[in-house]
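[Automated response] Your request has been received and processed.

Submitted sequence:
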Amino acid sequence: MAALICGSLAFDTIMNFEGRFAEQILPDQLHILNVAFLVPTLRRDFGGCAGNIAYSLKLLGGQPLIQATLGKDGGPYLKRLADLGISCERVHELAEEFTALAMIMTDHDNNQITAFHPGAMGQAHCHAIEPDLAKQAQVRLAIISPDGRQAMIEHAEQLVAAGVPFVFDPGQGLPMFDGAELRRFIEQASWVTVNDYEGKMLCDRTGWTPTEISHQVKGLVITLGAQGAEVWVAGQKTHVPPVLAAQVVDPTGCGDAWRGALLFGLEQGWDLVRCAELGNRVASLKIAQRGPQNYQLDFQP
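Generated structure:
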């Protein structure tokens, strides 16, 4: 049984700043902001939300099916997915674009500044989800993660038409949508997952509280980083404690690792609290390794 993962495939350039952004940025001088950060360490990794979620789900024993778009430089990523045993049948290549590129800088407090070039991702809407997807590809579950704006809108509509329940995971793409659009996503989705910052923005833009959102879907999950996660079902909140990481090295991709675990649990028919417990455990392994797709499991789910 496959889980369709709609989202970005990107190359990540990850840098570490050994100080704190807050100590380098003067709040009263933001109108003339001109700063430079010395980053003594740099690495390049395979990334993008769809790739990271698929990596997590595959590690856990799931069957990810990625719906994404690569550019003319995407050959190494296709080989990477093939080597991992992840299907590339719904990954499309565009000869006139570059693959999406993220440049991510993390400070001493694990705050991040990201510059993102969408590249081929901006054309992801050109590849539709067919009405017979469930029958054709044995897909029973999907996730809408950050992608091109039009792709997120159209793929959500197409999943509804195909009768495939999905998780709405707007992530860093949330600011692209106004309140009406976000309310529409929630009405179409079966589950919603956001981090605490995104959760506040989602509530602000929709005018709905977490309680109200949780009544619109089967469940809402708000991840809280080192504080664990909140699971909201039918207006009732449950706090799921965090799993202590062996060390905190790099937060890049932690949310995606968590979402791969969410999909795995949903595939198994687990309740959201159990899914969140697994997500916290996988995220604690990811944060102890550099890069979004370089960790391994030390347990059997």
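Summary generated for your ticket: The chain has ten helices and 13 strands. The chain has one domain: 2-26+37-286.
If you did not submit this request, please reply to this message.
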